[in-house]
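Here is the promised in-class demo. Please do not try to memorize the tokens; focus on the logic of going from shape to residues.
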């Protein structure tokens, strides 16, 4: 029933948005199919809706790499192919050489692009040129690291990890890992980015966030019952909450009761950018984008790390051994420091293998700024581009036995450049990657030292919203270490 509804509204929406845009598509096609380089192989799909439904269906299964990309790269024997998604002409890239081309030309040839559902949910995108928007996210994260020097940051993450494990895990025989890890990552982000420490407020925001993630990449038709409608409603509630938080902060800053550098929110209010101070609408959107970008991704990584650790006890033992050694070397100090995190080499290799094995973020979008050519094909200005993460991570050209889980492949020099790209590379790389590393490693340090766990549903299926999640939230039997 839900699928029928989804297909029906998708047809309706895509029919309405793409009629105009498709005529541009074919004009552009004409322009480049004379003599000279041609468009990459591929199909624009159905006359009106292109291949949007196939793309979204693969996205919902967390399988864009093999159900959408690999299927077509195999069919066309090419690293890139053309298609039509969201009423736009698209080129899809896959493989290390394609990654190298994108990441080393990001500032020259491409700008960030977001699909229509994002654009509608974050309306400031209509007013702020996309380059400025992306640059602000980057600047805010770098200011965040400047004012929160690494030691202080690790101490905050350490304290929140321990609190969460003590209050929500300790003394329990069974827990659901996914929602508890989400509680940890979200509590941490609220504390560090917004200075919110009130659990009730955190829970309220988290409730709305859970409704947002379902519809963030969907057909942007706000009809009751659709994921996009739920996301729109969630966004309205989140906006109201965040507007209030901003108002309170402005008042506190005016009375010198808050500091302009205390967190990302203060910086958004107090720091001028190239185009002036951020508007209220922009601040709300940026806060929500940063919270959204950080929450699902780190939650998924920690949850799947714990899942793989329970399935492969020899890896659990290696991680535990490393973390116990670090604890021994810290004595008599108890709180982790930045240099302890730098020693977590095996654990970080293991996390990298988690991110290689499972697509935490399946890919990202760009718009092409000028006509370009790649491997003999032309890519016209204005076309959109999608680069897929998993299609490289599971390619046997770069990773032997790609389906085998093996953290050893990250030892020494590790994989070749541009083959392991969970955060992207270069100027548009994820601005939260270092924050993510600290969040994940500190939590894993404590959870493996405190507990062992066994899945209650060994063959639990995976589902995919904004990032992958175990369908039932990964319930486990928890036992504290006896030694
Ligand atoms: C395991 C964790 C994470 C993964 C795998 C991940 C992955 C990614 C990827 C692949 C991109 C797109 C890069 C590109 O287009 O080249 C991205 C963008 C982004 N990420 Fe992350 N990310 C993670 C954690 C975080 C965290 C913790 C934050 C914030 C605290 C964050 C905030 C963002 C933002 C704001 C963008 C968009 C930047 C822009 O507009 O240019 N991410 N991330």
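The designed amino acids, position by position:
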């Amino acid at each position: 029933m839900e699928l029928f509804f989804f297909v029906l509204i998708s047809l309706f929406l895509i029919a309405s948005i793409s009629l105009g845009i498709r005529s541009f598509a074919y004009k552009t096609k004409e322009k480049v199919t004379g003599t000279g380089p041609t468009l990459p192989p591929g199909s624009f799909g159905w006359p009106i809706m292109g291949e949007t439904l196939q793309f979204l269906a693969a996205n919902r299964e967390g399988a864009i790499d093999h159900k959408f990309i690999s299927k077509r790269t195999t069919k066309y024997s090419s690293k890139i192919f053309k298609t039509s998604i969201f009423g736009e002409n698209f080129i899809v890239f896959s493989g290390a050489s394609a990654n190298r081309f994108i990441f080393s030309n990001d500032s020259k040839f491409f700008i960030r692009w977001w699909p229509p559902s994002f654009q509608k949910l974050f309306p400031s995108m209509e007013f702020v040129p996309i380059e400025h928007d992306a640059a602000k996210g980057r600047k805010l994260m770098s200011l965040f690291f400047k004012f929160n020097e690494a030691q202080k940051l690790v101490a905050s993450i350490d304290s929140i990890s321990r609190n969460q494990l003590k209050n929500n895990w300790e003394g329990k025989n069974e827990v659901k890992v996914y929602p508890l890890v989400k509680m940890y990552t979200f509590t941490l982000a609220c504390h560090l980015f917004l200075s919110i420490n009130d659990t009730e407020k955190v829970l309220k925001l988290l409730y709305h966030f859970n409704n947002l993630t379902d519809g963030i990449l969907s057909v942007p038709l706000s009809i009751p019952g659709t994921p996009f409608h739920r996301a729109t409603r969630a966004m309205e509630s989140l906006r109201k909450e965040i507007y209030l938080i901003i108002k309170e902060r402005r008042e506190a800053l005016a009375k010198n009761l808050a500091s302009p550098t205390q967190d990302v929110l203060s910086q958004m209010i107090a720091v001028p950018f190239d185009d002036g101070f951020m508007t209220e609408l922009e601040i709300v959107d940026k806060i929500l984008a940063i919270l959204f970008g950080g929450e699902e991704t780190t939650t998924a990584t920690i949850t799947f790390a714990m899942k793989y650790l329970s399935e492969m006890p020899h890896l659990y033992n290696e991680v535990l051994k490393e973390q116990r050694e670090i604890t021994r070397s810290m004595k008599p100090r108890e709180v982790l420091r930045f240099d302890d995190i730098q020693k977590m080499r095996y654990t970080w290799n293991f996390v990298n293998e988690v991110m290689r094995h499972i697509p935490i973020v399946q890919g990202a979008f760009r718009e092409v700024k000028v006509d370009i050519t790649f491997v003999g094909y032309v890519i016209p200005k204005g076309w959109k581009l999608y680069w897929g993460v998993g299609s490289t991570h599971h390619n046997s050209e770069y990773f032997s036995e790609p389906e085998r889980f093996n953290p050893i492949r990250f030892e020494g020099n590790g994989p070749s450049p541009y083959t392991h790209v969970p955060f992207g590379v270069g100027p548009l790389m994820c601005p939260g990657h270092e924050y993510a590393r600290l969040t994940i490693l500190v939590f894993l340090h404590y959870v493996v030292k405190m507990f062992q766990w066994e899945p209650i549903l060994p063959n639990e299926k995976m589902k995919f919203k904004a990032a992958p999640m175990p369908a039932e939230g990964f319930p486990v039997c928890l036992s504290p270490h006896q030694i």
